[in-house]
Amino acid sequence: MINLDINKIKEIFELAVKEDINGGDITTSAIFKDYKIVRADLLCKENGIIAGLDVIKLITENFLKDIEFFSFYNDGYEIQAGDFIGTFTGDVREILKYERILLNFIQRMSGVATLTNKFVNQIKGTKAKILDTRKTIPGWRYLDKLAVKIGGGENHRFGLYDMFLIKDNHIFAAGGIKQAINLCKEYNSTHKMNFKIEVEVKNLLELKEAIECGVDRVMLDNFSIDSIKDAVKMIDGKVEVEVSGGVNLETIKEIAECGVDYISVGAITHSAKALDISLEIIE
């Protein structure tokens, strides 16, 4: 189980409640006047990697009254269409009120975990690791990145605040790679920090300059396979190597086999399809 940040989950959950429930669930309030205990099952309708069960447990245990949740699986488990994932018991009014919010959490997270796992499986046997990006749903980054981890991927930086990533616009505005790198080193020194420095390069000349300046990692942006191989030889273990751009399920294995350390894939969060999961009241 991945350690969960209850404060971040609370913040995301409260935003969802404000957005969806706001003044109340008028349909449920009109139909059900009194307390009534029911059972509702989570049913998976397609194959995938389940994610978000621990988040749902945390929410029901800490923020919801009159609802209990029991899961039959653990996060990261490969489930099949037709599997019953878990059961809610409690007041029908509470279950119906929070049904869509809880489904959104588990469907979205399972979709991200499932797509991430497909990429991870493609590069088995290589040393490369799948990285996510900042291309996440606004306000949902914590859960998107948690789902990536559940799917077998790794997290890149969480935001602009925890790692230097010098990209082409930084380089252009600063007047060059060397200038941008030196300014980041100066920032570390002035603020007594030790943030890692990564720089995006577009060709072997930029790569050579970045290596000579001394960085922790280089990002090979939209390099061809032959250029990636040449870059890995030039780097020769001096810095970490990340590849970005033009990555999909058909190309990723060949990229990984070039000997790179990381492959960042924006699609695992910005293009993940929600896993089809339903909630059905059965008694």
Summarize the structure in words.
The protein has a six-stranded parallel sheet. A four-stranded antiparallel sheet has the order 3-5-1-12. It has 283 residues and is α/β, with parallel strands linked by helices. It has two domains: 6-113 and 273-281, Quinolinate phosphoribosyl transferase, N-terminal domain (Aldehyde Oxidoreductase, domain 3); 121-270, TIM Barrel. The longest helix is centred in the middle third of the chain and has 31 residues, at 92-122. α8 links the parallel β8 and β9 (217-221). It is elongated, with a radius of gyration of 23 Å. The model has no long low-confidence stretch (mean pLDDT 96). It is built from eleven helices and twelve strands. It has helices at 6-20, 26-31, 53-62, 92-122, 141-150, 168-174, 177-190, 204-213, 225-235, 252-256, 267-270, and strands at residues 37-44, 48-49, 67-71, 78-79, 84-91, 129-131, 164-166, 197-201, 217-221, 240-244, 262-264, 277-281.
Supply database-style keywords.
Aldehyde Oxidoreductase, domain 3; 2 domains; 283 residues; elongated; 4-stranded antiparallel β-sheet; alpha/beta; 11 helices; TIM Barrel; 6-stranded parallel β-sheet
Secondary structure layout plus pairing:
Layout: H1 6-20, H2 26-31, E1 37-44, E2 48-49, H3 53-62, E3 67-71, E4 78-79, E5 84-91, H4 92-122, E6 129-131, H5 141-150, E7 164-166, H6 168-174, H7 177-190, E8 197-201, H8 204-213, E9 217-221, H9 225-235, E10 240-244, H10 252-256, E11 262-264, H11 267-270, E12 277-281
Helix pairs in contact: 4-5, 6-7, 7-8, 8-9
